[in-house]
Amino acid sequence: MTAVREPTSGEKVPSGQIAAVTIDLDDTLFDQRLWLDGAWQAVGTAGAVFGLDPEALISRLRVIAAEGSDRGRIIDRALLDLGVPQWELPAVVPGLVAAFRSHAPASLPCYPGVGEALEAVRRWVPVGLITDGDPHVQRAKLRALGLRDAFDVIVFSDELGRRHRKPSPEPFLRALRELGVEPAHAVHIGDRPAKDVAGARGVGMRAIRVRTGEYRDHPDDPQAAPWRVFDRATEALHWLAVQLAATRPSRLLAD
């Protein structure tokens, strides 16, 4: 098994074997908390219609979300914590979920340098996005981030069925099929060991982990160690671009 380490200065990878790169969205290319903060504000405003204290609801949503997104049902749990009876949830939750889904900020900042780093890699190989979550919400994020045209292929795993969220092999295989690349010739970049790294490695891709977002301090899975680890996606992308530039013809020149 390849040891997890930073690349050494001047190290070259067999970049001729890398024919495509895929990447995660939330907490890899931008700070997911920025979008969530606005979404919770929208839910709090909607909660006032049901007689809920907006500020109390927003505060509780933030606390529960900070405990970890994998547990799910954040709105339900916040309402219960605020004393809303279980039997009232069916009348309240759908409206609040709708407010959450309809949150569509005009703009969101990517992590610094993300756009330029993506372009640097796309000069040499196609780049795909693989993202979990409600497709309507994920598309709104891409619009706000200005990244709708930053990828050659976009795969919303939920369009394949929620059971096919990462680490399911399906979204990775769909992206690879659309890119026309074999798994062994592709690299995936993401922040979550149990989803991005494990999922990519499970289909035979190389995986680069970035230490940003909610899972930055989570340990690596010893059974699915990443190929490389970087602090930020921009560093990983620029490193790949340098390696690719050493051996591959530019896609722009080829066109």
Tell me the strand percentage band. Answer: 5-15%
Look at the helices and sheets and give the structural class: alpha/beta
Given as residue ranges, the uncertain stretches (5+ residues, pLDDT < 50) are 1-13
Number of strands: 6
What quaternary form is this? Answer: single chain
Molecular shape = elongated
- What is the rounded Rg? 20 Å
- CATH fold descriptor of the largest domain: Rossmann fold
- Helix run count: 10
What is the spatial order of strands in the main beta sheet? 3-2-1-4-5-6
Question: CATH homologous superfamily of the largest domain?
Answer: HAD superfamily/HAD-like
Number of domains as seen in the coordinates? 2
CATH class of the largest domain, named Alpha Beta
Span between termini:
38 Å
Q: Percentage of helical residues? A: 40-55%
| Chain-averaged pLDDT | 90
SSE string, helix = H, strand = E?
Answer: EHHHHHEHEHEHEEHH
Largest sheet: 6 strands, parallel
| CATH architecture group name of the largest domain | 3-Layer(aba) Sandwich
How would you summarize this macromolecular structure in one to three sentences?
This protein has 255 residues and is of the alpha/beta class. It has helices spanning 32-47, 54-66, 74-81, 89-102, 114-122, 135-145, 169-179, 193-202, 233-245, 251-254, and strands spanning 20-23, 127-131, 153-156, 186-190, 206-210, 228-230. It is 43% helix and 10% strand.
